Each structure stands twice: as structure tokens, then as C-alpha cells.
Amino acid sequence: MKVLMILAALIILAAAAVFFEIYREVHHFRITRYEIKSSRLSGLRRETKILFLSDLHNRVYGYGNRDLLQAVRDEKPDLILIGGDMLIGKENTPFDTALDFVRQLPSVCRVFYVNGNHEGRMKEYSEIYKGAYKKYRCSLKEAGVVFLENEICDINLNGQKLSVCGLELPVCTYRKFHKSDINAGIITEYLGRFPEKDRSKTDPESKQNSCYTILLAHNPAYMDAYLDWGADLILSGHLHGGLVRMPGIGGIVTPQGFFFPKYSGEMTREGGQTVIVSRGLGSHTLNIRLFNTPELISITLAPE
Asked: What is the DSSP secondary-structure string of 60-109?
């Protein structure tokens, strides 16, 4: 009997510790820093910092999200990229929290925004959501946010040519227990072109003028297609880190109901390409995180 009582007490303590850790993680965020060095970044005059934000889902860190905004400012980024799902696409759910936060970001630096499945749902079913997406988008555009809805924007950042590509797949590609047939050809149809290839092998003088391609694609379930398409850097989110993360395994489950996704919340090098999947800044439906603290991603780019 005494052994059973001790065992029961240990189970209760372990459960309490788990619940405390889940509560702590849901209400805090961290800054995850990555460095990318590439010969295709030879045009950079100095190290350049990009912040990647995704899946806020109306989460608030400090009054008016001042803690998150201050963290963004403290990083002193050259470019901010948003990977979607900053709001919650649900009927009668206001988007003010996401709007108030995101519209302050252009005062820090240039901001590009690609839609996730929540913005996509509001956009695709505009009548159901009473035009909420259009209002949200217009307000952010007025503040200086650039939306990339299956569009590519070519910019020069500290001497380096960048193609920032925003891929927006249809809402049907996010269905539960389903994976659509997405390939590089389909991505080209959506975006209108392939990435500019490095011409340095045939023209050595052109190496410093090569264009580095960044693909913002919310759902990492189609990562093989993104890699085949040829982007140098692919930024995704959507999976919320897999809810629970296990050492050596990674994320456990995706929102579409698939277990142990290959890419769920880390940086991975695939030959000369880089994949970064954000664990996101918020949560939705299942408000659970374990060993999976929400994150703001800070990426330093430098020539190799």
C-alpha cells in the first residue's frame, strides 16, 4: 500500500510538472537565431538580419504585444518576413490583436507578408467572414506591409539581389488527413517563374550578381516540391512545432493529422538549400506546447 501511495504521489507530481511547463511555454516566447553563409550571398556588403514571424494566432505577449514588439526592435532587422496565420480565421473572431501588432512593424524595416490557411480561409470565403480579410489587408497595406499573394518581389538588400516569393496554396491543400499533389511545376504556375539560376559556372563575372531566392510557403507538408522548385531559402510555419517535441525526434503531430513530420521546427540544410520551419508564436484549437516554446526567428545572412 505504501509503495502504491508513493507511486501515485510521483505520478501526480509529474503530471503537475507537465501542466506547469505547458502553461509556461504557452505564455512565453524565445528568440531562435540561425546563421546562413552562402556563396550566393556574395553581394552582401555586411551581415544582414532577417526576422521571420509566423502563426501568432492573436497571441499577446505583454500589453498590446509590447514585449514581442520590443524583441523585434532589439534585433535591429534589415527585413521582416511574415509566414501567415497571424490572426484566427474563425467567424465572429476579431483580428484587432494581429492588426495592431503587425501594422507597427514597418516602422522597424521593410515587411513582406504571405498568407497562411487562416488568412486564406477568410479570403476564399469572403461572404462568410463579411469581408474581414479585405479590411485586414487594406489596413496593413496602408501601414506599409507588402502582401505577396502568389507574387515575387525583387529587392536589393545591402548590395545583394533577393527574390522574395510568397506562395499561397488553396485552402483545400490544408484538409485533415489529406495531402494534395503539389509539385515544382504547380508552384511555377502559381508564382509565374523559376528562381534565377546561378550563372557563375558559365560566366565567372556574374557570380556576385546572382539572385538569392527566399520562398515563403506556409505549409511545410509540401517541402519536397519547394526544394525541387529551387529556392535557396524556404521559410514555413503552420505546424506549431508539432505541439509536443521529443529529443532526437522533433515534432509529434501536424494540424492535418500526420505524425512525425520531417520538418517541424528547425533549420535543415539540403545540399546548397536551407529550410527553416518556425514553431510559431501562438497556438490554436489545441492550446498545448511541451518542450516546444513559441519562437521569433532571427536569421543572419553572410557571404561564404
From this structure: -SSGGGHHHHHHHHHH--SEEEE-S-SS---TT---HHHHHHHTTGGGTS
Residues 277, 292: contact at Cβ < 8 Å? no
For residue 197, the model assigns a pLDDT of 64
pLDDT in tens, 286-302: 788 888 999 999 999 99
Look at the pTM and tell me if it is higher than 0.90: yes
CA 272 to chain CA centroid, Å, is 20
Question: Strands of 233-236's sheet, edge to edge?
Answer: 151-157, 160-167, 212-217, 233-236, 273-277, 267-270
> How far apart, in whole angstroms, are the C-alpha atoms of residue 198 and residue 215?
16
Q: How far apart are CA 124 and CA 102, in angstroms?
A: 22
Short-list 110, 116, 97, CA closest to 144: 110
279 touches 240 (CB < 8 A): yes
Q: How many Å apart are CA 117 and CA 113, to the nearest integer?
A: 13
d(CA 50, CA 278): 13
